[in-house]
Design goal:
Layout: H1 2-17, H2 28-43, H3 46-50, H4 55-67, H5 71-84, H6 89-101, H7 105-118, H8 137-149, E1 157-162, E2 169-175, E3 180-185, E4 191-194, E5 200-204, E6 214-221, E7 226-232, E8 248-254, E9 260-265, E10 275-280, E11 286-290, E12 295-300, E13 303-309, E14 316-321, E15 327-332, E16 336-341, E17 346-349, E18 362-368, E19 371-376, E20 383-389, E21 396-404, E22 415-418, E23 421-425, E24 448-454, E25 464-465, E26 470-473, E27 479-482
Helix pairs in contact: 1-4, 1-6, 4-5, 5-6, 6-7, 7-8
């Protein structure tokens, strides 16, 4: 998120290089406005900062306090922004660094212990900004256990790779009848089939008939033999031009043949849209999310009908429908998972213990046998988790890491379920393209890796509970419960087997 990045950038400038020098303003008016802002900032109390919900204003405050090296007030801002963005590991780390800078060991340790308990994994052992709080048993514990969390975990592995090229695959679906994966390209708008051996064949291409643009998401309706694609024309799409800029919609194809059936496109006066998440219920109902506009649409009577519109959320990044079709789950990249009762039209927060579980950075989500399987690219370390819901589907009873910090986990993206396996794109290469959609270095393009996880891994085990315990391996490598109370370090195993705890 831009606001978070501004705060973190301010923190890095302050903590790494001391007081940031303010640049001379370009005009007297700007200087006067800046002086007034500084004056107001200096007059704020901690209680006033704690009551703010304005992320943009908090970001500006953070920059002012960082520039003045006013660490107490800067900490107020970091704490408040962290409360508003509870899943951000970077903000928590910057808070710990701020405490370390003023040699406040108790608060620095407490912040890092809470991060460790939540599953964050950072290597802070050689970070000179933490030098002031070295030399204690608690510090040694924190270093060891944050490193433990960052260790590779899980039995998943790369299933195959797709030939490298200027495709930017960012969509996956599973054709159970033919046993093929379907992959969609944001760049050329194509949809290709991938067989069990990783062999790729052409399936659907943009043409005058279908009018397909870049493919952002795919979903299959097995019962009715249909394939749905979210498609939009943005700068990253090779066919982007002034005539199609900002256009988006859902495209419907025959799953067996790829024959184009229908498309449902936003009206010309509807503004710019980009549908990046798609879900199809067992009864064939189709739902799609517009990330930037924070809207969710239902395909109904040939129209895209807005059913969720919440400007207080940050960005919808994934959708899933419960097995009974009653609940639509949506992931907000910064804030976690929410539910929407499709019968009553009412939204609700999915309850969970935030002291033990982080649900930020979700880029893909699937329903599987009473659980939600989430792909967390924005978590440190990157991971794939299975979330067991209670009988009402409104609370996470426990969570099991399936695969964590694998060497292949460069940039996690779309996923899809095939039986009891999850296939995930794990090296999305969007970073090779600039804001204008230009491929900056073709030589760095790599084959796209499709990773396979076992969805029934450790099925029935507790995992990370709603607040009772965590699961860690004992010396034999078997998993056991370890009771960890918030703020109290757990013992650190010295054997390698203990380094698989998440």
């Amino acid at each position: 998120m831009k606001i978070q990045l501004l705060i973190v950038a301010s923190a890095l400038a302050c903590l790494s290089f001391g007081a940031a020098a303010q640049q001379a303003p370009a005009a007297d008016a700007a200087a006067k406005a800046q002086a007034e802002l500084v004056k107001r900032a200096e007059g704020l109390t901690e209680q006033q900062v704690e009551q703010s919900h304005d992320m943009a204003a908090l970001s500006r405050l953070g920059q002012v306090y960082a520039a003045q090296n006013d660490m107490p007030r800067f900490i107020w801002v970091l704490k408040r922004v962290g409360e508003l963005s509870p899943n951000s590991g970077e903000l928590k780390l910057q808070l710990a660094l701020a405490y370390a800078k003023i040699d406040d060991k108790p608060h620095a340790y407490d912040t890092l212990i809470r991060m460790q308990t939540q599953g964050f994994g950072y290597d802070i052992s050689k970070d000179p900004r933490f030098d002031a709080i070295h030399g204690t048993k608690v510090w040694d514990y924190l270093v060891a256990n944050l490193n433990v969390n960052a260790k590779q975990f899980g039995e998943g592995k790369a299933a195959f790779t797709l030939p490298k090229g200027d495709y930017l695959y960012d969509a996956l679906a599973w054709d159970a009848k033919r046993g093929d994966l379907l992959v969609g390209s944001v760049r050329d708008g194509s949809i290709r089939r991938v067989d069990a051996h990783g062999k790729v064949s052409d399936f659907i291409k943009p043409d005058a008939d279908n009018g397909l643009w870049g493919v952002d998401s795919l979903a299959v309706d097995v019962a009715h033999g249909k394939l749905y694609a979210c498609s939009s024309s943005t700068a990253i799409y090779q066919g982007f031009n002034g005539d199609n800029a900002g256009k988006a919609g859902i495209f419907e194809f025959d799953l067996a043949t790829g024959k184009f059936l229908k498309k449902y496109v936003f009206d010309a006066g509807a503004g710019t849209h980009r549908l990046t998440a798609l879900a199809v219920a067992a009864d064939g109902k189709v739902y799609a999310a517009d990330a930037a506009r924070k809207q969710i649409f239902k395909l109904e009577d040939g129209k895209l009908r807005d059913i969720v519109n919440n400007p207080k959320l940050t960005r919808f990044s994934a959708l899933a429908v419960s097995g009974d079709g009653r609940t639509l789950y949506l992931a907000d990249y910064a804030l976690g998972i929410f539910g929407f009762d499709l019968a009553t039209g009412k939204a609700f927060e999915v309850a969970y213990d935030q002291s033990r579980l982080v649900l930020g950075g979700i880029v893909s989500m699937n329903w599987f046998d009473g659980t939600l399987v989430v792909v967390e690219d924005g978590m440190v370390p990157k991971r794939i988790m299975r979330l067991q819901l209670d009988k009402d589907g409104r609370k996470i009873a426990s969570a099991m890491p399936l695969d964590v910090a694998h060497a292949e986990f460069a940039s996690l993206s779309a996923s899809t379920i095939a039986g009891d396996k999850l296939y995930t794109i794990v090296n999305r290469q969007a970073g090779l393209y600039d804001d204008h959609g230009v491929l900056t270095d073709a030589d760095k393009l790599a084959p796209t890796t499709i990773f396979r996880s076992n969805l029934r891994f450790a099925w029935g085990q507790t995992g990370v509970s709603g607040g009772a315990a965590e699961i860690a391996p004992d010396k034999s490598g078997k998993r056991k419960k370890v009771d960890i109370k918030p703020g109290v370090p757990a013992p650190v195993e010295s054997k390698p087997a203990a380094q698989e705890k998440h």
